[in-house]
Design brief:
The chain is mainly beta. The protein has a domain of about 80 residues: Immunoglobulin-like. Helices cover about 5% and strands about 45% of the residues. The protein is built from 1 helix and 43 strands. Strands 21, 22, 23, 24 and 25 form a 5-stranded antiparallel sheet that branches. A hairpin with a 3-residue loop joins β27 and β28. The longest helix is centred in the N-terminal third of the chain and has 24 residues.
Length: about 525
């Protein structure tokens, strides 16, 4: 009787702990209802992390769109005044028609009344903040700089004097030498690659690309003391180039290799450049696939054919995108005929390149969007399994790719990840009750925190039918399967170190296996029923 009571107490304690963990781990919290009620405070807000705070724009329904700061708590989510005292340790960001600086406690406009109608592409080089701005009909997309004062905010060089045409100044990047800015602009004689040290005389052309439209030059990235980018060759083929800031040192790496000039499709990993690419040769039939370059023509090749033996007219290749590095692994979204758009991983080898999880089984797409949290060595992403939207996490392994909680309230999705602040993941979520507001989630709490040295191995995970459980430390153990509400859905005793459990009748979702060995040791392991 006492033994039974002890077991009952152990189970009650476990259920209490599990309930606490599930409630903390699997449920988001409304950070603050800035625009009280069902109205939204944010639509397409820009989020900027400054130290341990997050800067964003929101409308509380009273003051219009203003700048806000949050430390991840409701009381620490505050509206900032437009002007404050002079700040130190500043970060500069474009904000509509002005440039402002902040140290995380207030905002001061560097200029608010200089007549700018557009400010963007702010880039810091050697303590100079370069940016592109429009000031009137004859000064469109020109290059400016600022030292943080209104007097020190000046035009660097006017590329199109006495013209109503755009200068098309774009692709701003700090050069590897740490002293120059590289960018592209059109001075009226065609697109060119430029460099600038912040002075008018020091702003010069490196090389003309007269056959390249302004929208066909881009994807600049620094690698091994060179800056790599895409532009046209003399034969007007899209090609990979590199530059060291001199005309002689600006050379084509490989001709007839296209890339998509969009964010998230190029990244340096394992001392190589990985990118979304396609060969411009009529006889090839690969479509858009994952390519790699070591900076040489011979070392620039297709790395992995995500859709082997699939004609271009069926699918336009694997179309890799959303590149992120997590745990020294390259994660990316890819599209296949059999699985749709899902999350993939590579360790830099062909054998180590594979799909992590078919979130939406079959040819439908399950991976929607994601963002890495480097401090946790994880990628958080939105997944749709066909029934509901879930927030997922992955550490780059199949076993570590799991759903966390349901975000499909009234079919209104999580919109945008905003940042990881003070151990909380902040994101923009839309609900019927509150509209689009900031929500928070603590991803650091996990059932594994309560494990006693996990020894049991389960597979496959996720599982559709039969789950194999191997416990090398004992031949006799009791197992209980619980759902996210802490409800027991299965219980059985085992007299072998390895067993198979039929979970085919369980609904899709996240479950917990609680294992008690004959020596009294306990373990709790997550698994996904798909």
């Amino acid at each position: 009787m006492k033994i039974q009571q002890l077991k009952s107490r152990q189970y009650i304690i476990f259920m209490a702990i599990l309930s606490i963990v599930i409630n903390s781990y699997s449920q988001p919290t409304l950070l603050k209802d800035i625009n009280v009620g069902s109205a939204s405070s944010m639509e397409n807000a820009q989020f900027i992390k400054i130290g341990d705070r997050l800067l964003f724009s929101a409308d509380d329904g009273i003051h219009g769109v203003e700048s806000w700061l949050t430390d991840g708590t409701s009381s620490g989510t505050i509206r900032l005044a437009d002007n404050t005292t002079t700040l130190i340790d500043t970060t500069y960001t474009p904000n509509g028609n002005g440039l402002f600086k902040t140290n995380g406690t207030g905002i001061e406009y560097v200029f608010a009344n200089m007549g700018f109608t557009l400010v963007n592409r702010v880039t810091k080089v050697n303590d100079i903040w370069f940016f592109v701005a429009n000031i009137d009909s004859q000064n469109k997309e020109e290059l400016w700089k600022s030292d943080g004062t209104e007097a020190g905010t000046v035009l660097v060089k006017k590329f199109r004097p006495n013209s109503y045409d755009y200068a098309y100044t774009k692709n701003l990047i700090a050069a590897s030498n740490g002293t120059d800015l590289y960018f592209t602009a059109n001075d009226g004689t065609g697109m060119a690659l430029w460099k600038s040290d912040g002075t008018t005389n020091g702003t010069t052309i490196i090389k003309y690309f007269v056959n390249t439209p302004q929208y066909e030059i881009g994807n600049f990235i620094n690698f091994n003391n060179y800056t790599y980018f895409w532009a046209y060759s003399e034969d007007e083929f899209s090609s990979l180039w590199k530059t060291n800031g001199t005309e002689a040192g600006t050379v084509m790496v490989q001709e007839k290799i296209e890339t998509n000039l969009a964010p998230g499709r190029i990244l340096v990993y394992n001392n190589k450049i990985y990118f979304h690419g396609q060969r411009q040769v009529a006889t090839t039939n690969y479509g858009w696939e994952l390519w790699v370059s070591d900076g040489t023509s011979a070392g620039t090749r297709m790395f992995y054919d995500i859709n082997p033996d699939v004609p271009d007219d069926v699918i336009l290749g694997g179309n890799p995108s959303n590149f992120h590095i997590v745990n020294n692994l390259l994660l990316f979204k890819a599209n296949t005929v059999l699985n749709g758009k899902e999350l993939w991983v590579t360790n830099g080898t062909e054998s180590g390149t594979f799909m992590l999880n078919d979130v939406y089984p079959g040819p439908n797409s399950g991976f929607l969007n994601g963002t890495p949290i480097n401090g946790l060595n994880k990628l958080f992403f939105t997944g749709n399994d066909g029934n509901q939207r879930m927030l997922w996490e992955t550490d780059g392994t199949t076993a570590g790719t799991v759903p966390l909680y349901d975000i499909s309230e009234s079919d209104l999705p999580m919109q945008t990840y905003s940042g990881y602040i003070n151990d909380k993941l902040l994101f923009l979520k839309e609900t019927v009750a509150h509209g689009k507001e900031l929500w928070s989630f603590n991803p650091t709490l996990s059932v594994e925190d309560f494990d006693n040295g996990k020894k049991t191995h389960i597979y496959p995970n996720p599982v559709a039918h039969n789950l194999t459980i191997e416990n090398p430390s004992t031949d006799s153990f009791n197992l209980k399967v619980l759902n996210q509400l802490g409800q027991m859905v299965l219980i059985q005793n085992q007299n072998t170190a390895s067993t198979t459990v039929d979970v085919s009748t369980l609904s899709k979702g996240l479950y917990f296996i609680h294992i008690t060995s004959e020596n009294g040791n306990t373990e709790t392991i997550k698994f996904i029923k798909k």
